[in-house]
Every structure is written in C-alpha cells, then in structure tokens.
Amino acid sequence: TFQVHCRYIDGVGAVSAGAVLASFMDVTHLEQARQMRRDFVANVSHELRTPLTALMGFIETLRGPARDDPAARDRFLQIMADEASRMNRLVGDLLSLNRVESEERVRPTERLDLTEVLESTLATLRPLAESADVTLALTAPEAPVHLPGDADQLRQVFTNLVENAIKYGGSGGSVELRVSVAERDPAVRGAAVRVQVIDKGPGIDPIHLPRLTERFYRADSHRSRQLGGTGLGLAIVKHIVNRHRGRLRVESDLGKGAVFTVILPL
Ligand code: ADP
C-alpha cells in the first residue's frame, strides 16, 4: 500500500504529476530504509544468538555431565573461549561500522603518506601471514604518495582487505599490494592513487560481486564462519572509501583469485 500526498500547485487546482511521483518515491525510500533496518537488527540478533546458544549449552554440560571429566572440561572451555571471542569480534565490528558510518560525511583533513600507512599495515599483518604460510609483497612508487585522509581508517581498509586475501586466498600463496598513481584517473575524474590487493586464491563467483559490501553478505558462508569472519569487513571498507570520496572495485572469478582495488583522489 502506498500513501499518496496530493498537493495543489499554484492554487489553480491542478495536481502536479511530479509532486505525486516525488511523494511515491519518498514513501518507497522510507519503507526501504525501514526494511533495511529491520533486516539489520534481525541479522545482528541471529549472529549474536548463535554463539550465545553454544555458550549456554556448554555451561549446562560443564555443570552436569562434564563436571568430573577434566579432558572434556578443557575441550569445552576452549570452545567457549572461541565463541566468546567471536562475539567480541562481532561487537567490535558493529562499533567500527557505527563509527565510520557516522563520520562518513566529515571530510578527512589530515595529510598522510599512503606508502607509510601500507607499510605499517603489512608489518602488523606479517605474523598472521607467516602462520598461514603466505608471503606479502608491496610494490609502490619511490616517491611518497601524499593525500588527505584518515590514517587509522585507511589502515583499517587495508587490514580488512589483506586479512581477507590471507584468509580466503589459501595457505601457501602470496598476496600483493600494488600501488600506482595517475594524473587523471577516470574513476574519480582527477589525480588519484590506486591500491590493488591481489590474491591467487579460489576467487569469488561473479554472481556475488555486486552484493559483497552489504552487511553480513558472504559469498561462502560456511568458510567465512569457519575462519571467524563477521561478514562486516567489506561494509566497513566501503564506508571509509566513501568518506574519502574514493571508489572500491572487485574483480574475481572462480579459480582466478581476487583483486580488490581502492581508488583514492589525491
Ligand atoms: P567476512 O568477515 O565474512 O570475511 P567480509 O565483509 O570481509 O566478511 O567479506 C565478505 C565475503 O566476501 C566473505 O565472507 C567472503 O565470502 C568474500 N571474500 C572477501 N574477500 C575475499 C577474497 N580475497 N577471496 C575470496 N572471497 C573473499
């Protein structure tokens, strides 16, 4: 059901078709926004309830059947710790999402060196890469790449993308960050820097690509959950890139690895 607000224009008694159409669209957008909020709350509740139910189940088992079995107790406590840290990651990502969303309209003013941001990001992720037997490489121009931005937020963008490339790219592989600068990049109609995060993993079926940055959207739900993913990483990336007036591109195909490109105006 639509609500239609008819307005008389210019006092001549004629209903403007434009006004009616605009009203239709307002109501439709409002309803879409409401539906998105309802879906989001339902998704968050579901994502929190799953580990919570597991925790409650294990507490009961520890109180009852496993009370006098030290080996079972240790195993269950380990699972409980994993479930608690899953909840902790989810709450952390929800808070990040909330923050980046509320800051999206505030233009970042800090002037930063992007190569420095990328180097510090890779240094933090090196232990994770080593434990997955993945090599990390950075190819960047010699000269520093300065741009207006929020260093912490951009670190978060590349942390999320490189973490995904390590996680999904498969062990024993390589992840490359390739930086290039263009005087006139068609994507932002001006000078820009492109950072590509390239992995040689199993890739993503193209049918998933348009929805990948939606909250809780996963191309492979089982694998994401197994690897401790919250399904919010790329949604956070998208908001931060928007705040920098940039673009995010994904190219991938099954068996062909994935390339995530962040284009930032200089
Ligand atoms: P998650 O916490 O599930 O990793 P993200 O928002 O970071 O959530 O990513 C969304 C989904 O995109 C992932 O669940 C995964 O299916 C897919 N994905 C992201 N990066 C890659 C990649 N490099 N290779 C394959 N699949 C990927």
Automatic annotation (TrEMBL):
<keyword id="KW-0418">Kinase</keyword>
<dbReference type="GO" id="GO:0005524">
    <property type="term" value="F:ATP binding"/>
</dbReference>
<keyword id="KW-0808">Transferase</keyword>
<dbReference type="GO" id="GO:0000155">
    <property type="term" value="F:phosphorelay sensor kinase activity"/>
</dbReference>
<keyword id="KW-0472">Membrane</keyword>
<protein>
    <recommendedName>
        <fullName>histidine kinase</fullName>
        <ecNumber>2.7.13.3</ecNumber>
    </recommendedName>
</protein>
<keyword id="KW-0597">Phosphoprotein</keyword>
<keyword id="KW-0067">ATP-binding</keyword>
<keyword id="KW-0902">Two-component regulatory system</keyword>
<keyword id="KW-1003">Cell membrane</keyword>
<feature type="domain" description="Histidine kinase">
    <location>
        <begin position="43"/>
        <end position="266"/>
    </location>
</feature>
<dbReference type="GO" id="GO:0016036">
    <property type="term" value="P:cellular response to phosphate starvation"/>
</dbReference>
<keyword id="KW-0547">Nucleotide-binding</keyword>
<dbReference type="GO" id="GO:0004721">
    <property type="term" value="F:phosphoprotein phosphatase activity"/>
</dbReference>
<dbReference type="GO" id="GO:0005886">
    <property type="term" value="C:plasma membrane"/>
</dbReference>
